Amino acid sequence: MSIFLRKIDSTVAAPVYTFSENAAAQIHVATRQQSTMLAMSLILASAGENMLRLSMARLSQLCLVIAAAVAFVANPALAAPKSIYDFTLKSIDGQPTPLSGYHGKVVLLVNVASRCGFTPQYTALESVYEKYKSRGLVIVGIPANNFGGQEPGSNEEIKTFCTKKYNVSFPMMSKVSVKGEDMTPLYKFLTTKDTDPKFSGEIGWNFTKFLFDRHGEPVARFDSAITPDSAEVTAAIESALGH
Length: 243
Hints:
Elements: E1 5-7, E2 17-19, H1 21-32, H2 36-47, H3 56-74, E3 88-90, E4 96-98, E5 106-112, H4 121-132, E6 137-143, H5 155-166, H6 185-191, E7 209-212, E8 218-222, H7 231-241
Parallel strand pairs: 5-6
Antiparallel strand pairs: 1-2, 3-4, 5-7, 7-8
Helix pairs in contact: 1-2, 1-3
């Protein structure tokens, strides 16, 4: 069994221990199986003969570390995300916006940009939103500057542009990255095969659209060129909304 604990500083009177990534993974599995005792025994077993040399004071400290680690990995809020409801974005005004607030709604997520050839799709997005919002549709615009530098402005500038030029009334989020090393966690979730096997794959350009049903399950993905008011998109929205 690999060593789970690493002594950070052996020069101090009471050494401090931390957990390796391997430890966290195995403890996580144990706690997910509802076995706190298993998680603790994994740690204690890994310490091996070093445990025999610990004073009672140091052993008490170690037990506190173990308890804290078990509580940390057992916290459901810290578990791997299962749906879009596990993510929180910032609104265009900088306010935390948990996507769980849209539970029970049909959600269309769109990465948008102000200087793109597809920017006029804002008109269709607003039209579709007005048509279906009373039935439970929410469109969420997510500005990103990943493609051709076509969203260079500040959040305030983006908001002004959308509202004045296109009368956008659907929720707009703060600018994020939807591709690359600095990709926001939501889009990593959406584009990774392990977490979204049906509709994964890199975002190709601005105005890529993801549609989710009332339970947060992905039901469709549409490329940039497919307009929000196309027969293909509206049929998928109608199906997700139900009767």
